[in-house]
Amino acid sequence: MKTAFLFPGQGAQVVGMGADIAAAFPAAAAMFERANEIVGFDLRRICFEGPADRLNSTSISQPAIFVTSAALLEVLRASATGQNIRPDVTAGLSLGEYTALYAAGAIGFDDGVRLVKRRGEAMQAAADATEGTMVSLLGLDEDKVRQLCDEARGGELLEPVNFNCPGQVVISGTLGACERAERLTEKYGAIKAIRLEVAGAFHTTMMTPAAQALRQALVQMQISQPPAIRTIANITADYYRGPESVIEGLTRQLTSPILWEKCMERLLADRVEEFYEIGPGRVLTGLMKRINRRTKVTNISDLTSLTAVIG
Prior knowledge:
The protein has 311 residues and is α/β, with parallel strands linked by helices. It is 50% helix and 16% strand. A 5-stranded parallel β-sheet has the order 7-2-1-8-9. Helix 13 links the parallel strand 8 and strand 9.
């Protein structure tokens, strides 16, 4: 039976995340302390105590989620039970792809923290220079979403960018185009349109300056070849082949759609039967229930759920 480790992306953050495992496990606490040294501010305190508006900022939430997920993974791996739970493949949603590559042995912890910090800063800067946002559409298939975008676009940027699961597609673009799309949702039969709490139009060409800055950071990093464990790429739903494909995939990810549903379908087709979502929240667990309701996903997001697995 094949096993996959899944890692959440931006939006999974919540004040208090990681505090319980850091209090219970010195190895987890040490990872937060090391992250503080790398980022140059008290990331640990923001994760544990907030305030929420600071934790939710793109430049902070990204390293915060990466470190919390990595700390949970560290404690799992160090446990007697966890040593018998070894992934055949890893995957992560957008930002979570960095944690997936770390878990696979492709990048080290220090480099991972530096990369996601740079990614968050670059995305925030690109968002500040534009007026964009994202909207999650519930209850529409891909064709309907594309038709809605065509009508709402009005000569501005508007594209479907996150194909998360059946009936859930996120669109991204200029503020005006997203507002027009929200007004059209009833016409197209959507159940609901949810404006996301994000800084800008992620996964569109509005993020081109961020992608350029990220590529410069990526080429300076040590990426293992080949990694010990395979990682599936968000933008292709295929496995990374080596350092060049990782650099290309992570760079293009900022301006390209995230094909999460196809990634999970690929893993299921490749006979992955056991899934673990490791990191704050339960987003990926919920998405998998919509992709294939019979698939078992074990959620490891805090001390309680971690203890239920490792005893």
